[in-house]
Amino acid sequence: MSRITTRRKTIRITPAGEVRRPDTLAVEEPLELRIGGEPLIVTMRTPGSDIDLAYGFLFSENIIDSVDDIVSARYCAGTDAYDHNTYNVLDIRLRTPTPLPSRRFITNSACGLCGKTTLDQVRTRTRFRPPYGDFTIGSTVLSALPDELRLHQTAFAVTGGLHAAGLFTRDGTALVVREDVGRHNAVDKVIGWAVRENRIPAADLALIVSSRASFELVQKAVMAGIPVLGAVSAPSSLAVDLAADAGLTLVGFLRGETMNIYTDAQRIGIDEAVAAV
Cα–Cα distance between 119 and 68 in angstroms, integer? Predict the structure, then answer.
């Protein structure tokens, strides 16, 4: 199988002069996803948890409703210059043949929405509507989750070049954490895990991401019925608008004991210690 990190020669400039040494980098490779042998998407991703990535993407795009819709997922032959299988082509066979979207997707590691030209095309209607049950989470627990997420970022620790996403219970327990060069891929990987584990709708979990909260991340959370999305950086205006429209609690700048709650603040229990800051 492909590695998630690799080594490259580098010249490091320091006050003491040049230092020549290898550096550890995150691997970025294409993954072609096929449905019944028909190409659907090529995405740039970090190898690993490709099945979860595929399931999460197909669910977020309304192509599948549950894990029961999938009969098999297998790697196809794809070779490098040395005739080694690159494991970069994944074919999914659906239980019931489903008309695929007329558009095809080509995405890079920075954007999960490339090629979608209008808001109507990306504002996919979720099958789960608010209020997503009675989920709440304390502000003290929520504020600790970015650090908990970082503890599970083993590849980031050696590369500094990967996003992460994780699903957490209301008491702060991490159920799943995935890393990827693309923030949308990392989210697809954790949602794909939830699909496989029959945890959809994920109405009793919070999604935490190590990046900014962009529109496509909010969309994926809404599609999965996740009630709370917390990001260590800023949300975009469109992300806030979609979260407000969908009834999702969106938290940004989740750092230390501070955070900004942009929508549906009733799900965040403000603890006394935080309220006094």
Answer: 30
Structural contact between residues 152 and 16, judged by C-beta atoms closer than 8 angstroms = no
Within 10 angstroms of residue 97's Cβ, the number of other Cβ atoms is 9
User: Residue 73 is encoded by which pair of tokens?
Assistant: 């997922």
Q: Nearest-5° angle of CA 147, CA 148, CA 151?
A: 90
Choice among 51, 111, 174, 274 that is catalytic: 111
76 a catalytic residue: no
* Predicted model pTM: 0.87
**What residue has token string 């808001």?**
119
Separation between Cα atoms, residue 103 and residue 82, nearest integer Å: 34
- What gap in Å lies between CA 207 and CA 210, rounded to an integer? 10
Q: Say how far apart CA 108 and CA 175 lie, in whole Å.
A: 27
Euclidean distance between the first and the last CA atom of the chain, given in angstroms as a whole number? 49
Which of the 8 DSSP states describes residue 203?
A: T
Q: Return the ∠ at Cα 244 (arms to 277 and 215), rounded to 5°.
A: 95
Residues 6 or more apart whose CB falls under 8 angstroms from that of 122 comprise 113, 116, 215, 216, 219
By CB neighbour count within 10 A (0-12 exposed, 13-18 middle, 19+ buried), where does 155 fall?
buried
Rounded-to-integer distance, Cα 188 and Cα 53, Å: 5
Question: For 35-84, how does the pLDDT look when each residue is reduced to its tens digit (9 = 90+)?
Answer: 999 999 999 999 999 999 999 999 998 899 999 999 999 999 765 555 55
Cα(248)–Cα(256) distance, rounded to whole angstroms?
A: 22
User: How far is residue 217's CA from residue 223's CA, in Å, rounded to a whole number?
Assistant: 10
